[in-house]
Amino acid sequence: MEIRAAVTREAGRFSIEAVDLDEPLADEVLVRLVATGMCHTDLVALDQHMPYPLPAILGHEGVGVVERVGPQASRVRAGDHVVLSFAACGHCPTCQAGRPAYCQTARQLNLAVRRPDGRCAHHAAGQPVSAGFFGQSSFASHALVRERDAVRVRGDVPLAALAPLGCSVQTGAGGVLNVLKPSAGSSIAVFGLGAVGLSAVMAARLAGCGRIIAIDLHGTRLDMAAGFGATDLIKVDDTSSAARVQTLVAGGVDFAVDATGVPAVMAEAVAATHRTGTSLMLGLPPPTVKVPLDAGLLLGGRTIRASIEGDSVPGLFIPQLVELQRTGQLPFERMCKVYPLDAINEAVRDCRDGSTIKPIITMDAA
């Protein structure tokens, strides 16, 4: 069948093209996409800082409606509303232990360019197109995914509003609720107020944190954090943000979250905690970059953790997040701005300059 897709043929730019897509096989599911969130990881791949063979279809926060299923698919059926999330094998020891974000074949599955049997399901102008990015490649009108990576959700919630759940909200909210699990009244500092950081702020409020300190360069993002429950706001300047956190909470906070992936900021997050506090790294730094930690900070009992996708089991956690959004307890739609597929390069520009926190790309219904 012919679909429309945003194809990356050169670093930094998308082109809207007609692409031929194969029918679903085995446990694959054909999903008509309604919308896809744009995430920082998409931009890293778009710029080829994360190598992904071009030409390619990116996108990994898709939501849509199942149109057809392969002969071995049994979990979802045509007409189901689904949120697409990261790929995991489901049978390795880590997956079996309920930690699919750390699947032993996660890299191969989430950076796949073809089907597992080596065949290419996407072609444009008679040439193969890489697809399978985070198991979905959802900057398109349709996507082929394995059914285990499609999470069925209730059908009475506007699908486009759920697009951030597949990665960014799952990561930020899951980092707080699944990993840190703060007790009511505890203190937390969140460094970086993009979609992941703001999701962490919302989750901290849900958890009942008594002090929620939000730190960012942009005043507009700080204002949004205040609306999401932040009790204290720090606009980054030439002074140490960690020191400013310590003036607000004597001795430091119980928890700190870094959502920037900037090494110097990651070190600030560690320094903002008290002697037995915990800092959680959710940002994506370049793989070979070193974090300049003061070794003395580690001797008092501090804990440093990292998390992928909020340590979530998407099939369980995403429906919970849908309910929280539906009831107004996790209003992440307020940080989103909608762009049609034809305006995807405009969305990239606005995401880069910080004027849009979470672009949502909507697809044609054809």
Automatic annotation (TrEMBL):
<keyword id="KW-0520">NAD</keyword>
<dbReference type="GO" id="GO:0005829">
    <property type="term" value="C:cytosol"/>
</dbReference>
<keyword id="KW-0862">Zinc</keyword>
<protein>
    <submittedName>
        <fullName>NAD(P)-dependent alcohol dehydrogenase</fullName>
    </submittedName>
</protein>
<dbReference type="Pfam" id="PF08240">
    <property type="entry name" value="ADH_N"/>
</dbReference>
<keyword id="KW-0560">Oxidoreductase</keyword>
<keyword id="KW-0479">Metal-binding</keyword>
<dbReference type="GO" id="GO:0046294">
    <property type="term" value="P:formaldehyde catabolic process"/>
</dbReference>
<dbReference type="InterPro" id="IPR036291">
    <property type="entry name" value="NAD(P)-bd_dom_sf"/>
</dbReference>
<dbReference type="InterPro" id="IPR002328">
    <property type="entry name" value="ADH_Zn_CS"/>
</dbReference>
<dbReference type="GO" id="GO:0008270">
    <property type="term" value="F:zinc ion binding"/>
</dbReference>
<dbReference type="InterPro" id="IPR011032">
    <property type="entry name" value="GroES-like_sf"/>
</dbReference>
<dbReference type="InterPro" id="IPR013149">
    <property type="entry name" value="ADH-like_C"/>
</dbReference>
<dbReference type="GO" id="GO:0051903">
    <property type="term" value="F:S-(hydroxymethyl)glutathione dehydrogenase [NAD(P)+] activity"/>
</dbReference>
<feature type="domain" description="Alcohol dehydrogenase-like C-terminal">
    <location>
        <begin position="195"/>
        <end position="311"/>
    </location>
</feature>
<dbReference type="Pfam" id="PF00107">
    <property type="entry name" value="ADH_zinc_N"/>
</dbReference>
<feature type="domain" description="Alcohol dehydrogenase-like N-terminal">
    <location>
        <begin position="26"/>
        <end position="152"/>
    </location>
</feature>
<comment type="similarity">
    <text>Belongs to the zinc-containing alcohol dehydrogenase family.</text>
</comment>
<dbReference type="InterPro" id="IPR013154">
    <property type="entry name" value="ADH-like_N"/>
</dbReference>
